[in-house]
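Internal ticket #5521
Category: modeling
Description: The requester needs a full-assembly model to guide mutagenesis choices. All entity lines are attached below as received. Residue total reported by intake: 542.
Assigned to: D.W.
Attached entities:
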Amino acid sequence: MKSFAYASPTTEGEALSLLAEPGEIEILAGGTDLVGLMKKMIITPDLVVNILDIPSLKTIEQLDNGAIAIGAAVTLDEVLAHPYLDPYPAIGQAIEGISSMQLQCQGTIGGEVLQRPQCWYFRGGRGLLAAGGSAVEDGDSRYHAIFGNDGAAKFVSASRIAPALIALNATARVIGPVATGGSPVGLNGEDASERFFPIEQLFRIPRHEGERESVLARGEFLTHIILPDRRNFASATYEVRQGAGPDFPLAAAAASLRIEGGIVREGEIVLGQVAPTPWISRAAVAALIGQPVNEQTAEAAGLAAVTAARPLSHNAYKVQLAKTAVKRAILRAAGQETGGF
Amino acid sequence: MDRTHHRPPSGFSRRDFLRGSGAVAAAGAIVSQTQAIAQEAKGTRILSGEQTLALSVNGKDVKVKAEPRTTLLEVLRYQLDLTGAKPVSGDASSGASTVMIDGKPVSASVELAVRCVGKKIETVESLAKDAVPAAFVACDAQQCGFCTPGFVVATRAFLNKNPKATEEEVRKGLNGNICRCGTYANVIHAALMVVKGGANG
C-alpha cells in the first residue's frame, strides 16, 4: 500500500472539511473493497477519511412518513437483522446472497452500494475502462456487461443491494460543499449543502479514463439511504451464481411489485451484474402490468428485459441468465418461488 | 412512475429525519449542530507516519507501532507474534485472517490497525481451551491447516450467535471461509459437534 494520511471525523461536518483537503482522498467505510484495492495500488489516496466514527451515519431510523433512513455506515449484518427492513425482503435477500459472515459484519451498506466495479482488467491495474474498452473486446469478456456496453466501459456494476434499493425507489442523501448545488444546510450554509435524489442517479457510465462510475463530486459523500414506505409492494432479489460460495453473481435481478386483486398494478424491475450501472428494465415492468404473476407472465417479463441485450464476444450466456434472474425475482416476490439459491 | 417522493417532504431536514422531530424543533438542533461542526472541523487530527497505538488483544493491553496503512493482520503477526490469522487473499475473499472485533468475525487483512483502538480484539490464540479447536481435532477438520485458524474463529463467532445451529445454517454461516484442500465436510461435522456439546460432550 502507498503511505497515506488518515483522519477519523466524528461528525458529518467534520468529514466535509476533511474532504476539502488537497490531494487524492478516499472515504473508508467497512474497507472490504477499498483496502484490497489500495494493497494492489489500484487506488492510491493521499488521505483516507474513516466514516465509521460518525454516529449519525450508524443508525436506522423510521421517519414520520413511514420512510426508513439507513446510515451509510450501518453494517450489512445490522441491516439484515433490523425489523424495520422486514417488509422489504429484496434487501435482506441481497445481503444474504453476499453469504460471507465476515463481509456482512465488516461491510457497510454505503460501501456496498459504492464499491468499485467488477472487471478483472480494472482490478488487474489496466484502468477502469481497460484501454478504452479494447482490453475487454480483445480479451476475455465472460463476466462483462451485456447492456450499456457500447462505450468504452464494459465492466459491471458490482453492488448486490443497489438493484433492490432502486426497485424500492430509495433516495440517496449526499452532503458536500455548497458548489455541488444542493440545499444549504445550517448556519454556515456556504460551507455545506445536502441533496436528495433517486439512488439510481448515483451511478453513471464513465466515458473517459479518470471518470468514476458514481456521480459524487469531489468533497461529497453519501450519508443515508432513505427507503420510502413501500409496504404495499412485494419485493425480491434473485441472483444466478455459479455455486453457493461467496462469489459475485453472474446475473441478478430485483423486483418490487404492487399486486392488487391478483394483478400487477405497478412495479420496478432492476438487473444487476449485467451493465456498468444497475440496469432498470421498464420493458419488463410493462410486460407485467395488468397481468397476474405466473410462470408464463414472469417468463415473458424476463424475455422483455433482455430483448435489447448486446452481449460481447464471451458473454452471450449471460443473456439467458439475466432473463432467468428476472423471471425468478418476479416469482419470488409473488411468493411463487421455484427453487435455485 | 411517480418520483416526486424523492423530494424531501416539507420540513424534512437532516435532524428532522434522523430524529423524526418536527421542523421547528429541528431548526434549533441545526443551529447547535453547525456551530459544533465549525469548531470540530478545525480540531480533527490528521495522522500520518508511524503512531503508537494502544490495543486490546486477547484480553491484554498492548502497545504497537503502526502507520495508517498498517493492517491489523500485520500488527498481530509481525509485532505481537500472533501468527494464527493468515494472509491468504489479502482482500477478504478467503476468510483466513478472521479474528473477532467486539465479538464480530472480520477479516484482519482488510482492517486498518489504527481503527482498532478501543476495540476488543480476539484471535485464534485466545481459543486454545475452547471447544471449537478440540472438535476440529476430533473430527480431523484440517488437511494442510492453513485455513484452519480462520475457520476456527469463524466457527466460534458463528456459534456464539447461533448456538443451536442446524447443518444448513452452519454451511451458510461458514461460507466466508475457503479451504483449498476441500475439507469442508469435516469442518461442518466439527461445528455440529460443538452444537451437540463438543468433543468431550
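Resolution: model delivered.
Comment from assignee: The first strand of chain A starts at residue 5 and ends at 7.
Ticket closed.
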